[in-house]
Amino acid sequence: MGKKKLFVLLPDGVSLRNFAYTSFYKEGKAKGYDVVFWNNTAFDLESLGFTQINIRNQKLHRLTDILKAARTRIELALYIEREGDSIYQGYIFPLSYRNIKARVKSVLIRWYVYRYGSEKGLNRLRDRMKRQEREGTYYEYCTRILKEHQPDVVFCTSQRSVQTIAPILAAQDLDIPTAAFIFSWDNVPKATTLLETDYYFAWSELMKHELLHYNKYITEKQIVITGTPQFTPHYEQDRIKDRATFCKEIGVDTSVKFLCFSGDDYTTSPKDELYLRDVAQGARESTSRGIPCTIIFRRCPVDFSDRYDAVLSEYVDVVVEVKPKWKKIGDAWNTILPTAEDVNLQVNLLAHAEGVINLGSSMVFDAIAHEKPCAYMNYNYLNDAIAYESGVYVYDFVHFRSMPSKEAVIWLDHPDSIADALKVMLEGAPKTIKAAQDWFGIINKQPATDASQRIWSGIKKICL
Question: Which pTM does this prediction carry?
Fold first, then answer.
């Protein structure tokens, strides 16, 4: 029997982190697979020694984006009705009316929501999206590529991209098995399971339950539980530099403990610079108490704004910025791509930091891979830099309901309590670490180090 050929459909740059910059490719090659990246990003994977087929200049059907937006809104409305839970409303972004093009798009989305806004209507909309994509030149192109290269499986690294619909449909119409990896821990309740494949690779039993609960067309036999490879680099000791070398690289005193403040994007945290200011003030207060503390600030990689500049200038004594090592390859926002060097940077930041601070991200699990605590910002700024209120709405979202104990993170409920919280983090926070490990075990199959191996085991069964 010859080598089995796997097409890894790569729709976006962030998926590079999971499947190009981890051991996934090497493990597949070691198992005798012919691994080909079907690459829809601007990144040249051949520069890393990978085999690739680029997808260039292919266009979706003109209505696909509109129908996708309508589908998402319909699904979330149905979740509200089924669950009797208004939290799903928080996943619906407001429509834009900023110009004529945006107004036309929004009117069409509202029309399709009205037309297909029921369980039966949703099924008709799903069928319409697939029918339209089959009519386009992108589908024809994908069919031609697949006939030429004849892969045994097409494995898509994300279930949420419209760019993957035509390639997957083309594969299915040629009787090539297809699979999709669920991109992120919060994706399924947000109605982002756009891609309809033969198999779904899930992070955990929890995610399997979510796939079955929210998507009535998915059956249990289609789901393979693997965990995610995104955390595996944290366990690879050869990536970790000695502390003196790393501290010299980022410009901090080796003798001073530091915490990582991980910035959020503007949509998630529009006043993130004020959180950094408060944490910096807490670090300054901690230092004045005789507990020296430096804050390493790593901004969201696609945030090129100047919103943090004033804080970085004012708190230069306690804050050091370490910029993400992402690369801008083109003009569009989605051509800002992670690099392999950035994976190593993140690993070393968390290996040598005493913990991480941010607003509600999965960085809690990156930190716990190093047995380090995470603190979540838990108050909200309103319309200025002074007035704030307790609580942050994001913690009401469904994926945070998986937290088995509130002790899984340290809650920063008030600016005045941050210095005390930093002290707890610097001392190790063993209760928080234990609870976070329990949480990690719920959202990601353990041991986390075996995720790629489990993915390859699932692919092997599909190939049989």
Answer: 0.95
Cα separation, 418 vs 287, in Å, equals 12
Other CB atoms closer than 10 Å to residue 218's CB: what's the count? 18
Q: How far is CA 236 from CA 22, 48, 228, 249, in A?
A: 10, 19, 15, 20
Q: Between the CA of residue 261 and those of 35, 318, 334, what are the distances in Å?
A: 37, 12, 24
- What is the DSSP-derived secondary structure letter of residue 252? -
**One-letter amino acid for residue 135 of the chain:** E
What DSSP element (H or E) covers 342?
helix 340-352
Half-sphere exposure of 29 (CA within 13 A, CB side): 12
Q: Is 99 helix (H, G, I), strand (E, B) or coil?
A: coil
Distance of CA 24 to the CA centre of its chain: 17
The DSSP-derived string for 343-356 is HHHHHHHHHHSS-E
| Residues 6+ away with beta carbon under 8 Å from 72 | 92, 191, 192
Residue 159: partners with Cβ closer than 8 Å, 6 or more residues away: 180, 181, 182, 183, 187, 192, 193, 194, 195, 197, 200
Cβ pair 350, 234 in contact under 8 A: yes
What's the pLDDT tens digit per position in 225-237? Answer: 999 999 999 999 9
Confidence of residue 332 (pLDDT cuts 50, 70, 90): low
Helix (H) or strand (E) holding 114: helix 100-116
